[in-house]
Hints:
Elements: E1 4-10, H1 21-35, E2 42-49, H2 51-62, E3 70-74, E4 76-77, E5 80-83, E6 90-98, H3 99-108, H4 113-128, H5 137-153
Helix pairs in contact: 1-4, 1-5, 3-4, 4-5
Amino acid sequence: MRGYKIVISNKQKKVKIPTGFQLLIRRCCNAVLHAEKVQLPAEIGINFLDNEHMRALNKEYRNVDMATDVLSFSLGEDGVYEKNLETGAAMLGDIAISLEMAMAHAKRYAHSFEREVGFLVVHGILHVLGYDHEKGPLEAAAMHRKEEEVMSKVGLELNVSGKGSFLGV
């Protein structure tokens, strides 16, 4: 472990979480944080939700009244993050993932549920670290390259067609 604290919370009951799932999530988190050279120590939260809860969050924070697959809540700006006063760790933020949406996307793109959730974790953490595909094509391409790099490192390569990646949707 590289000094990263990853807090995983399952706040939904609609999708059964497979055995070994938390280990995969931790591997994805660690791969992104290592690739981005995040200084030690750091904390991040991963929250699994249902579509109803995601819809409420999306409406509250983005004024979009529909469920979404992933939302990122950064606790920093320009690489400066709040600190946990007890541990001194940089609190990077929280990622909310709809497991219902992830299951639907996995079926739609004909890949595993684990690969889809791994992608959403990677995508969400990159947002927390400042990547933003909505700023334009150059930023979107940079984020996509980083997603591919990290997914390859954890053995969850993106489909050759790009489907399942943000740019392929």
